[in-house]
Structures are given as structure tokens and as C-alpha cells.
Write a structure and sequence with these properties.
The chain is of the alpha/beta class and 236 residues long. The protein folds into two domains: 115 residues, Rossmann fold, CATH 3.40.50; 105 residues, LytTr DNA-binding domain (OB fold (Dihydrolipoamide Acetyltransferase, E2P), Beta Barrel), CATH 2.40.50. The chain contains seven helices and 15 strands. The strands form four sheets. It has a five-stranded parallel β-sheet with strand order 2-1-3-4-5. The chain has a five-stranded antiparallel β-sheet with strand order 10-9-8-12-11. The chain has a three-stranded antiparallel β-sheet with strand order 13-14-15, with no helix packed on it. The longest helix has 14 residues. The protein is elongated. About 6% of the residues have low confidence. Pfam families: LytTR, Response_reg.
């Protein structure tokens, strides 16, 4: 499933792209926005696989966006200005769509992107376990493949839009499930929600500095809602 974002300073243009995306299997429109800076944050956080990007926008043009985001995701340019096509392809864009965009032309561009972007991992499923088991099983990247993950190996878990990443030494396991669901499977403590997007193992924390937790070299924010319970456990 390719996670898509539409970025256009004209909201109706993004709505059209969202309607097109809904018709195509294997695509999910996770956000539409008129703010390119907001979209850039999504890309930099790894929350998008494919961006439909307008060129002429205030604050940050599409070409400036491409220079900043680098190769973090695939981009299809959507614009009314054909003169930017060459420069767009110099940034390795997948395709260049001229407005008004017909669905058949949109579909061909998307098929190019689907051929270039590796398929997302199959959703990880977890088998309910009791805290005494000390482990859970997660579904791997192929059918009927399950990986055992020991509680002791889990560093932290991170919500990524509609996805979830379980971080263990040297590996990141991705699942299409809410962080809350994983939290209910893990013993608390040592596992604790510290932010709406993060769950950490208290055993793996190397330092707490104000509202930031460090797990190895990862800086994790502490949400205001979770701050009191975290520091109560630390003090105890």
C-alpha cells in the first residue's frame, strides 16, 4: 500500500487527486494539504511514499520542496506550467502531469510509481500473549512467516501515520495497527506510553533531559499527558 500526500495551494485540486487515488488499489491518501511545509514534515518523518506535488505555491515552491526532501519519497508533479518539466525530471520525479489532469493519465503515472516503490511490508499481526511469556510473534514480510520478538529486545515503538514501527536492535518491524493495541499486549512497566506517537521500554532509556527521552541515539519527546506517570515511575 503506497501512502500518498497531495500538496496543492488550491484545495479543489487536492480533492480531485484524492478521488482519483480512492479508485486505484494499492494507494491510500493519508493527507491533503495546501501547506508545503506541513507536507515536507510528513516526508521527512517517513510518513509518505508518494507525493502529488504542485509547483507554484506560496512559501515553498514545488522545486524547492524537491531539493529539500531529496530521495525520501517518490514525487509526481501536478501543475499547469509545462515549462518546469525538464527541471522536474532533473530531480528524478516519477512523472509530470499537466492540469487539468485526466484520470487515464493519472493512472499511468501512478503505475510508474508503483513499479518503482517496493511494496510495503505486509501488516504485522501479533498473537495475544500473557506478560509471563516474555515475547510475542509478529508476521514477517512473506506469507506464513512469523518472527519471535522478545520483550527484552524492544527498544521503542513509534506510530507512523496509520502504521506502527517496532524498533529492535538492527531492525524495524512495520505494522498497520494502532500503537494503543500494541501497548495493551506489552507488560506495563517496563513498557510505557510517553507520547501519543511513542511507547518506550524503561529498561532501554539511557537519559531523560527535560521533556526528551533518549533510547540509544534516538531522541523521543515526552507528551504533557504522559509526563507525570513517567516521572512517577522514574522517582519510584
Amino acid at each position: 500500500m503506497l501512502r500518498c500526500i497531495a500538496v496543492d495551494d488550491e484545495a479543489y485540486a487536492s480533492r480531485l487527486l484524492a478521488a482519483y487515488v480512492q479508485k486505484i488499489p494499492g494507494l491510500e491518501m493519508v493527507a491533503t494539504t495546501t501547506n508545503p511545509i506541513e507536507a515536507l514534515q510528513w516526508v521527512q518523518e517517513g510518513r509518505a511514499d508518494l507525493v502529488f506535488l504542485d509547483i507554484q505555491m506560496p512559501e515553498l515552491t514545488g522545486l524547492q520542496f524537491l531539493k529539500i526532501c531529496g530521495n525520501r519519497c517518490k514525487v509526481i508533479l501536478t501543475t499547469a506550467y509545462p515549462e518546469y518539466a525538464l527541471e522536474g525530471f532533473e530531480h528524478d520525479v516519477v512523472d509530470y502531469l499537466l492540469k487539468p489532469i485526466a484520470f487515464d493519465r493519472f493512472l499511468r503515472a501512478v503505475q510508474k510509481a508503483q513499479a518503482l516503490v517496493p511494496a510495503a511490508p505486509e501488516p504485522i499481526t501479533t498473537t495475544p500473549t500473557t506478560p509471563g511469556n516474555g515475547y510475542l510473534f509478529v508476521k514477517g514480510e512473506s506469507k506464513n512467516k512469523f518472527l519471535r520478538v522478545n520483550y527484552a529486545d524492544i527498544l521503542y515503538a513509534e506510530a507512523l501515520g496509520n502504521y506502527l514501527a517496532i524498533h529492535v536492535p538492527g531492525q524495524r518491524l512495520v505494522t498497520y495497527q494502532p500503537l494503543k493495541e500494541l501497548a495493551e499486549l506489552l507488560p506495563q512497566p517496563p513498557f510505557l506510553r510517553v507520547h501519543k506517537s511513542f511507547l518506550v521500554s524503561l529498561d532501554k532509556i539511557t537519559m531523560i533531559d527535560g521533556n526528551t527521552i533518549y533510547v540509544q541515539d534516538k531522541a523521543i519527546p515526552v507528551g504533557e499527558t504522559y509526563r507525570e506517570s513517567l516521572f512517577r515511575l522514574v522517582r519510584d
